[in-house]
Design brief:
Layout lengths: L12 H9 L3 H15 L5 E5 L5 H9 L4 E6 L2 H11 L3 H4 L2 E5 L12 E7 L8 H11 E12 L5 H11 L5 H13 L3 H10 L6 E4 L4 E7 L2
Parallel strand pairs: 1-2, 1-4, 2-3, 4-5
Antiparallel strand pairs: 5-7, 6-7
Length: 220
């Protein structure tokens, strides 16, 4: 099945709120546990590209109490929800800096981050190579990288089966977004091609679940 791109930003308040209220406990917890199993306890500065409502940055901040996190999202509605989330945990909020910027707008010093993470951003992007270039620009030599995203199924029927399995009780707006995101997702093979094109051959790609792949490694 050919990829069907979707809008880059999830910026309608209703849409963002539905995403923030959805049950992502299992994949978000899996993301943090995968990072810890691959790289151990993070330290220094971590960059999260596409932080959404900041659930994953909050999990990392509570896990690593000396960690500083730069949480970036291009959608003002998402950053608003992220700030609300963080306002309920003063200690974590003090160590998480939220930034509203797209990949193209983000301006950070080169090689300024000790870890770069991203969960479910890449499938939104119309120019995926810019995403990997940002990781290369921001991550220092030796930086841990973990990216997780949806893996495009073979057809619309399979995509609908995934939605029915994992989002059956979610609002209609979220079910629709989930379906469209599956159609917009990249396959692991396409991600490998992107890594080759951007010179990030030190990163490995593998299927992580029936609906996710991960790309991971240490920048050289």
């Amino acid at each position: 099945m050919q990829r069907i791109p979707e809008p880059e930003l999830m910026d309608e308040e209703k849409q963002a709120l539905a995403y923030a209220q959805a049950d992502f406990e299992e994949p978000n917890n899996q993301f943090v546990e995968t990072f810890l199993s691959l790289f151990g306890q993070p330290s220094g500065t971590m960059l999260d590209l596409g932080c959404g409502p900041a659930d994953i940055p909050l999990r990392f901040a509570r896990q690593a109490t000396e960690l500083h996190i730069i949480a970036v999202d291009g959608a003002p509605a998402m950053i608003k929800l992220a700030n609300h989330t963080l306002s309920q945990d003063a200690d974590a909020k003090a160590r998480i800096e939220t930034v509203c910027a797209s990949i193209q707008e983000l301006r950070l010093p080169p090689q300024s981050c000790d870890a770069v993470i991203s969960n479910s951003l890449l499938h939104h992007l119309h120019e995926p190579l810019a995403f990997w270039d940002t990781i290369r620009h921001c991550g220092r030599t030796g930086a841990a990288v973990l990216v997780m995203d949806l893996s495009r199924p073979q057809g619309r029927a399979e995509a609908q089966d995934i939605v029915d399995t994992y989002a059956v009780d979610e609002p209609a707006v979220l079910r629709k977004d989930f379906f469209n995101s599956l159609l917009a997702a990249f396959t692991p093979e396409e991600v490998e091609q992107q890594l080759t094109a951007t010179g990030l051959c030190e990163l490995s790609v593998k299927q992580a679940s029936d609906r996710h792949w991960i790309a991971y490694g240490v920048l050289q």
